[in-house]
Amino acid sequence: LTADQQALLDQFTASLPTLVAQTPEADRAKHTAFCTSACLQRYLRAHKWQLDRAQTGLTKTLQWRSEYRPDEITPAEIESEAVRGKMYPNGYDLFGRSVIYMRQRLNHTSDAKMQMRYLVFTLERAVQMLPDGLTDGPACPESLSLLIDCEGWSMSTGVPLSTARETLTILGSHYPERLGHAFVVNAPWLFWTFFKIVSPFVDPVTRRKINFVDLKTQHDLPLLQFNDMEKVIRPSSSTEADPTPTSPSEIWTNLRNHFSDDYLEASESGRFNFQYNHEHTW
């Protein structure tokens, strides 16, 4: 941290008792434990090191955690959402991020409230898989990778717009700086058309973390050299919008710049022969 950033972090830390005091008394101990130095730095980074905005964002998260109680969602509560293996954390990418696999085609429920609680449950589990605290190395152990398999995606099977909006709100507001990369695999042309429409409205920093993968051609894409890995580890934080790509071929990503074949599931062209077995997993 720079001297100015450290000063802001110190002020943020000093304000914690006041922020936590705005939550129910029964929750204050766990909220204090939640607000580690790493947590405060994530909120400061997410809010461009503007202390007042970071304090407001954290206050809203603490209030949300008191009301939604994400840490108290039990496996039994959301098991009906999990039986087909549509979403689960499994392993790590090359940079130490825990990976969440998502397959919307396996969705078999329609209760939006329970679907959202299952998402939050999965996020909480994936965060628990990460190392505690910050390191000085390049592994970004605080963030997650989402591997979104869109095979079978259509307007009828895709996530409703309201659910997508709520998902982005929860990720951005209550899990800031947790998204390392999102990989969209097997996206049909209809999805690409939809993405081009919404892309200009997505936060530029988040947009740079979204990668498209064509499993049929990715082996033709070059592997990054060591000196280029910083682009993969830490996407640009510029708030200026990138030009909207005109075709997916402009932004194809080689998964092997992010995953080891040995730890990437075979369904995504890796060598890890993992099959979700609910009875065993749960």
TrEMBL record:
CDD domains registered for this protein in UniProt: SEC14
Gene Ontology molecular function: phosphatidylinositol transfer activity
Gene3D superfamilies linked: CRAL-TRIO lipid binding domain
InterPro entries to which the protein is assigned, alphabetical: CRAL-TRIO_dom (IPR001251), CRAL-TRIO_dom_sf (IPR036865), CRAL/TRIO_N_dom (IPR011074), CRAL/TRIO_N_dom_sf (IPR036273), PI_Transfer_CRAL-TRIO (IPR052578)
Pfam families listed in its UniProt record: CRAL_TRIO (PF00650), CRAL_TRIO_N (PF03765)
Coiled coil, from the record: none
Domain annotation CRAL-TRIO: ranges: 75-236
SMART domains, alphabetized: SEC14
Protein name in UniProt: CRAL-TRIO domain-containing protein
Classification of source organism: Eukaryota, Fungi, Fungi incertae sedis, Zoopagomycota, Kickxellomycotina
